[in-house]
Amino acid sequence: LHGPTKATTLGVGAIMISSLIYFSVTEGSINMTEILIMVFLALTAPVSANMMAKAAMHIGVRTTEETRGQGWDQ
Fold it and tell me: How many Å apart are CA 33 and CA 36, to the nearest integer?
């Protein structure tokens, strides 16, 4: 649950930071759009992953043999 949201947040965050640096150097001003996107993603990615996991538990999605840790039914 932590891995997918961490990769998404860090990947998009790195792109937004590089965009922020590039456009602040070329245009001479900081654009708030990149900052707002990073804040929105940092707040919503863990919440959405948690909600998807809860929904999977609720409807009884089966875990595979490769799943580490305990299954839903334990």
Answer: 5
| Distance separating alpha carbons of residues 53 and 29, to the nearest angstrom | 41
CA neighbours closer than 13 Å in the CB half-sphere of residue 18: 6
Q: pLDDT tens, 33-68?
A: 889 999 998 889 888 888 988 898 889 888 777 777
Spell out the long-range contacts of 17-22 with Cβ–Cβ below 8 A and sequence spacing 24 or more.
none
- What is the Rg, in whole angstroms, of the alpha carbon atoms belonging to the chain? 18
Render the burial of 34-70: b for 16+ CB within 10 Å, e for the rest: beebbeebeeebbeebeeeeeeeeeeeeeeeeeeeee
Question: What does pTM read for this prediction?
Answer: 0.66
